[in-house]
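Inputs:
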Amino acid sequence: MEVFVRGARSSSRDWSAAQRAPLDLLPQLDDEQKAEAQRGNLSEEAYARTLYAQQLTGQATLQRLLKFGQWLDAKIEGINSECRIDSVELNTWEGMLHIQGKSEYDSFSFDLDEDVVERFMTTGSADLEAAILRVVEIFLPRGKVAIAS
Amino acid sequence: MNLKGKSATFYLSEEGRSFLDSVAGDGLYVFDVGNGRHGIITADVEDSEDLGVWIRVKRRGGSKFFLLRWEFIIGIEIGEEKSKVIGLRG
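Outputs:
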């Protein structure tokens, strides 16, 4: 399974950590990034700290997406043993997760609201789990679909 | 568009510019060199709501959130490349 994050962003925790990070941890800016910093009236150091915060959040988000994707893949396999997830992509602009997968003869894809997934990941709510699995039921190939519990 | 966590450049109205000058001028807020001059401020967005945009700023003693009200903003530019993608195989 592959997981992707489209579009950079940073959490407040990583932003704060980046403000305190030693200079040698910050990324080196290329010419385009230096010009971008100048356009925004930012010093190169401040811009590099923003990029570093985005890197920290990006890596953490990938790990969470992978955890969620693996959980969802196991649920999907339980519903239809022929189906597997190929990729999970978070679009940070839309706040949506795009899931793609396939069975032996068919492919499937569907979107999940990031806020719903995030709340589920932090609360483990049975209601949210049921909501997520209802979306799965709608879009999974119908071949050997069992009733999701 | 979801601005949360994004880095954005805000173009401020005259009123917004003078307001920013006044809060920066009292020395409480530590804006980056040049940031905020000419009514242009680049900052990371914590969240947005009906009243305006909460941006992250450094203040003496730590990090704070600062509400930039919509009526002070005449334009927002997202400089980040929309197509930037990172990935992981697991």
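Remarks. Residues 36 and 55 of chain A are 17 Å apart (CA to CA). Chain A touches chain B at residues 1-12, 15-16, 19, 36, 39-43, 46, 50, 53-54, 57-59, 62-63, 65-66, 69-70, 92-95 (CB under 8 Å).
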